[in-house]
Amino acid sequence: MAPQDFSFGKAVFHFFSIAGKRPTAALWIALWQAVLTGALVYLAFVTIGDFYLWLIGQIASGVEPNETELLSRIGGVIAFGPLISIGGMLISLMAQAAWLRLLTREEVAPVIPFRIGGDELRLFVTNVGLMAIGMLFYFATSLIVGIVVGVGIAAAVAGDGSVGAGMAGGLFVGLFIIALVLAAIFVAVRLSAAPATTVLEKRIAFPAWGATRGVFWPVLGSYIVVAIIIFILSSIIGTIVNFAFLGAFMPLLGQFIDMAQAGTEPDPQQVLAMFESQLRSAGTATTLAAAGLLMVILRAFTDAIWHGVGAYVARTNRPVVPDPE
After folding, report:
1. pLDDT in tens, the chain (325 residues)
2. Angle (nearest 5°) at CA 107 between 102 and 109
3. C-alpha dist (Å) from residue 25 to 16, 28, 65, 276
4. What is the pTM of this model?
């Protein structure tokens, strides 16, 4: 059954509506997502990032890396790389489940909102199903586009080779690709409520095709408006973060300007040493940490805003009354 009382405005601002009623819960989930994401980014920096910084330093100094040390560092990257990838996927899954619990059932897991339980396992299966459809669609469209382009080239070669024939063939291929993109958007919108429905109904609801029946255009419009809201928020926060980075490295830029005015050209090793010294300063470290925390908190809230549309569709399709606290 299609949603009967779908409201475009309520779909767009569903997250803000729920967050207004449960501000502490929303902030608590966002904080945990920010902390876990920040910890993972830090781990990636001190392992994988440290390897690339060391390698750049070796190349800049003109010294050939020691084979034993190079293999040792590469071994660390190989060991931690998969763990960091798995950790990122787990955090993303737990964050999605935590937000959807709040946005659909208005529930928050006690104490620690992130966990691996029934919601997360069912959501994992649903996400795998969505990814499988996406991969199948990608490979199928790639094959079809390849065949169409091949046929078009063959027809052009076999024909008179005129500019008009070439333009007609290019127009056909272009329109065909646009049609495939529109088909992908249609499928994505029709399946968009599957994760939220899975969490709301505590069952694997994939593909939840019927949840968006009859409201395709309002749902698509809601996602477009939400994307615009996210873009505006990201632009504002991104500008703040850019100014923070600029302020943190302003002393270093001043040193470079002074050296340029004095006619001194620093060697690459000296430049790297200056960057490392600036990064280790308390002011720079504090500024970068604050900017990074602001970015991951923004990411947490933009995730929630995006999930809000699917959560609203799921709730409207099957209204739920939360248990009294």
Report:
1. 444 577 888 888 999 999 898 899 999 999 899 889 888 887 877 777 667 666 666 665 666 666 666 676 676 677 677 788 888 899 999 999 999 999 999 888 888 899 888 889 999 999 999 999 988 888 887 787 777 666 666 655 555 555 555 566 667 667 777 888 888 899 899 998 899 999 998 889 888 888 888 888 899 999 999 999 999 988 888 888 777 777 767 766 666 666 666 666 666 666 666 666 666 666 667 777 777 778 888 888 898 999 999 999 988 875 444 443 3
2. 105
3. 12, 5, 50, 39
4. 0.75
Instruction: Take residue 304 and report the two structure tokens written for it.
Output: 């929630």
Structure tokens at 255: 């040193």
Crossing angle of helices 282-317/14-21, nearest 10°? 100
Radius of gyration, alpha carbons of the chain: 26
Q: Would you state the structure tokens that stand for residue 160, as one six-digit string?
A: 């008179």
